[in-house]
Amino acid sequence: MCGIVGLFAKDKRLEPQLGALLSDMLITMSDRGPDSAGVAVYGHGHDGRAKITLQNGDPDADLDALVAALRHATGETIAATRRGTHAVLELGAGAVNAARRILIDRFAEWRVMSTGGAIEIYKEVGLPARVVEAFDVPGMTGTHGIGHTRMATESAVTTHGAHPFSTGADECLVHNGSLSNHNNIRRDLARKGLTFETENDSEVAAAYLTDRMNDGADLGQALECALRDLDGFFTFVVGTRDGFGVLRDPIACKPAVMAETDRFVAFGSEYRALVDLPGIEGARVWEPEPATVYFWRH
Amino acid sequence: MSQARPKVRTEPVQSATFSKAVNAEIRRAAETGIYDIRGGGSKRRVPHFDDLLFLGASISRYPLEGYREKCATNVTLGTRFAKTPIELAIPITIAGMSFGALSAQAKEALGRGATIAGTSTTTGDGGMTEEERGHSKTLVYQYLPSRYGMNPDDLRRADAIEVVVGQGAKPGGGGMLLGQKITDRVAEMRDLPKGIDQRSACRHPDWTGPDDLEIKILELREITGWEKPIYIKVGGARPYFDTALAVKAGADVVVLDGMQGGTAATQDVFIEHVGQPTLACIRPAVRALQELGMHRKVQLVVSGGIRTGADVAKALALGADAVSIGTAAMVALGDNDPRYEDEYRALGTTAGAYDDWHEGQDPAGISTQDAELAARLDPVLGGRRLANYLGVMTLEAQTIARACGKSHVHNLEPEDLCALTIEAAAMARVPLAGTDWIPGQTPI
Amino acid sequence: MLDLAQTPLRDINAALQAQARGGNRTRWEIANPRGSHALAVGLDAPIEVTIRGSTGYYCGGMNKQATVRIAGSAGPGVAENMMSGRVIVDGDASQYAGATGRGGLLVVNGNAASRCGISMKGIDIVVRGNIGHSSAFMAQKGNLVVLGDAGEGLGDSIYEARLFVRGTVSSLGADCTEKEMRPEHLALLDRLLKDAGMDDARPDQFRRYGSARTLYNFNIDNASAY
Fold it and tell me: Which GO terms describe its molecular function (chain C) (predicted)?
């Protein structure tokens, strides 16, 4: 139950403003979700390098010690940037899995928000205005981004219960609605070895898409499968390293508005979220059809 | 010489699984091809307020003197946002029952009785009638998925607005009023053709989910100048989450209806197999309010199987601010009265079991639109009977509260209770009688 | 001119609603709606309100007598439960346009999204463009006129509302069927099109849809439609 925003820049000149535009869109949706807020921002990244976004509730946690331990264990050069309760590590793409194992084994208080060549995820409890400020989202550059403000239905109001959910490299998902068969899907996926951090239905949806893509589907195909296997009410907005997708369930009564111009594709739970986008007056504005996969790629 | 011995046979045994009633229902389904539709609430025995007892006072606690030392019963509903909260003399309200399901006389009687007793009555899925508005000092206007008869004038002349998301008899379900009851007047109020089966939707037509509900509440408040309390009524399905979400969406009052709560007409399978007993719903809802810092700020009204002052006192002790009655109010008016036994038998049933309210042949003249039958209920007399009954329940609740040393019924607490059964102890989260054991409660 | 950038929603609605108790201003303009919800709701006076921009949920909700023009697009539930008067949307309307409306005229000059006219109870709705899926679901009374195309499941479980579509219908819902266009329907349609200012459409270009009335009283042989 929530407010969703998404922005996919077609025009490179919009990229420096992506964080600022996305932040304003998300703040406009605050009424739809008072519990927590989060964003996924896709930057350009560097060839052969990958990013790990971490979160630690303790503001005095020792990031340097963690970086030193990882450097020692992997032999990698690691750049670390701290933003509020989060930190982004940049390291060789080949070392991500090893680093992740070390984090889980030895630094459990640092929790992995996302991994990938381009994605960074920032999320916390509280209203969007406070959350985007805490991470300086308005200052971020990116090719595309997704934001979410949450009204929790059945799972806990925690940092980890906030959206976006990322269950695979450079993948993220946000959700407005309520799934009705996520517990069985979660059990099926857990049997296949996927792990879950929360009781949230939306995390199951994210993991479901990851699982499909691990089996060789592209995002569009994975979303088609979701229509068959996921029951309940949903509007999903999903991101991959170079793609941006939208899917509504066949009943499609959770709100969704899209706008497209030569410069961008944008998503909002309500039109209000889109009103300040540059050139919105001339945009094609429409509501995505039920059970229809929408997908854009760079 | 051998003598023939009588043959010894095993006593015939009726299967408990395939009981006579079950077999009869299978035959009925095979014969007619339609599921059983009926009125009322769950008839099966479920853990209920009967399974709780008050401890009373003795040496460690001091009781109040009956009839002399005051025990207040007043309750204010809608103190959170509404400019004009509802002030009631007693913590017992009359639940929503539609004109259509009930006769105009019955609706009038409910209004009269509630007004004498100093409490509110509620419209239902069929719009507001002059009879009930005119005779109800305090009238709650239901805002339902069907929106039959919905209009801004009635919205403004209501004293509170109840957004109905669900009811205990059928959480997640809509309704079905058979054609016999869609008379000219009912049809006109609902903008439906006369005589057809009326199918009520299970979701509201223009919002889904708590985020949209918040905006719907904004609209209702803007139309009514932020004056009237907005209640949200939910069926006892997931009371912890639903209460929390109603609060987040901006409710002034949460109305929580357990599975014993009645309905005018729905599938028997829905009534008996969907939803939780009232007893099991209260504590999770109160916990949600407490965690949000909203207990007693957003009021909780509990309904579903409330019959006596003891039930009222127990619901309040578990954390409710008020209770609501529907079926009991109908019985007070004369529903299922044995004096109509011959007529009940002619309908193939018996007094106390009559539940085909949707068919409109109610001998007591309450759940009907038949003019002749409806004329059997004198609204003035009916109102008096209801007021008497509400008065008795209030006196009973006060008696118990005084015995527990309370000068207001709202000061009853879960710690004033014990449970007779393990099930009730677990659901109400009070200790099993004679022990300090609350099943499922983690030791502190 | 009322400006939502400067005046709170509650004050704007209060000023418009106060016209019901006597007022001498018949023309109002509202600037900077920026997708705000519950704007110009509960009006009850023959005034004209023009909103300069796009609105959020439930604009013109429960309107009586007033003419509300949205010079932009409308969010979900525009003119929901309208009693009388007019609501005109220059752009598109989101889902639930005219939901449960009991009277008056709703004109959408662009497209209307899903569930247009859901549970309508006497309102007239005229849409220049297309309408989305599940429109006129359980529609009880009134007229829905669509100059463009209709989405999936048009008129599912419909009662006595009349549906007129000029373009294609993706699919009809349960118990909705095409019906004969008789002279009285052509005359009705002519009046509705003129009222809505749709001068370029002719009644004979439309097809009429309505209830087959097979679900009006339960019949076991129709159980699969439930």
Answer: oxidoreductase activity
- Check pLDDT > 60 for residue B10: yes
Mean pLDDT confidence for A131-154: 94
CA–CA gap between residue B406 and residue B424 (Å, rounded): 24
Q: Is A5 on the interface with C (CB under 8 A)?
A: no
Residue B198 has pLDDT above 90, yes or no: no
B441 belongs to a structural domain: no
**Quick check: A1 pLDDT over 70?**
no
Q: How confident is the model at residue B251 (pLDDT cuts 50, 70, 90)?
A: very high
Q: Which residues of C touch A272 (CB under 8 A)?
A: 34-36, 56, 75
B155 and C CB contact within 8 Å: yes
Percent of chain B topping pLDDT 90: 85
| Residue of C76, C111, C152 with shortest CB distance to A255 | C76
ipTM above threshold 0.85: yes
Question: Would you call C76 an interface residue with chain A, using a CB distance cutoff of 8 Å?
Answer: yes
pLDDT of B444 above 60: no
Residues B114 and B132: beta-carbon distance below 8 Å: no
- pLDDT per residue over B142-160, tens digit each? 999 999 999 999 999 999 9
Q: Which pLDDT belongs to residue B178?
A: 72
Which residues of chain C are within 8 Å of residue B146 when distances are taken between CB atoms? 119
Alpha helices in B35-103 (DSSP H): none
* Gap from B208 CA to chain A (nearest CA, Å): 7
Rounded Cα distance between B217 and B232, Å, is 10
Q: For residue A37, list its beta bridge partners.
A: A124, A149
> So what's the pLDDT on residue C200?
93
Counting one residue from chain B and one from chain C, the pairs whose CB atoms sit within 8 A come to 103
**In this structure, are residues A149 and A33 in contact, taking their beta carbons and an 8 Å threshold?**
yes
Catalytic entry in A2, A172, A225, A253:
A2
- Single out the residue of A214, A217, A215, A251 nearest to residue A233, CA to CA: A251
**Residue ranges per domain, chain C?**
1-87, 95-215
C41-85 pLDDT tens trace = 999 999 999 999 999 999 999 999 999 999 999 999 999 999 999
Look at chain B and report how many structural domains it folds into: 1
A45-117 belongs to CATH 3.30.559.10: no
Decide: residue C224, CB within 10 A, 0-12 exposed, 13-18 middle, 19+ buried: exposed
Which CATH code is given to the segment(s) A3-44+125-297? 3.60.20.10
CATH number of domain containing B231: 3.20.20.70
Q: Can you tell me the distance from the alpha carbon of A152 to that of B289, in angstroms, rounded to the nearest whole number?
A: 15
Average pLDDT over residues B408-433: 97
Contact residues for B298 (Cβ-Cβ < 8 A; gap 6+):
B80, B246, B247, B251, B252, B253, B254, B289
Residues of chain C with pLDDT under 70: 220, 223-226
Residue A89, amino acid: L
Asked if A286 is an interface residue toward chain C (Cβ–Cβ < 8 A), one would say yes
A2 is catalytic: yes
Angstroms from C199 CA to nearest CA on chain B: 31
A106/C contact by beta carbon, under 8 A? no
**A252 in reach of chain C (CB within 8 A):** yes
Report the C-alpha gap between A60 and A159 in whole angstroms.
Answer: 17
Domain layout of chain A by residue ranges:
3-44+125-297, 45-117
Q: How far is B200 from chain C (nearest CA, A)?
A: 9
All residues of chain A having their beta carbon less than 8 Å from the beta carbon of residue B238 are 154
| Mean per-residue pLDDT, A102-130 | 93
Residue B4's pLDDT band, with cuts at 50, 70 and 90, is confident
As a whole number of angstroms, the distance between CA B119 and CA B88 comes to 5
pTM here is 0.93
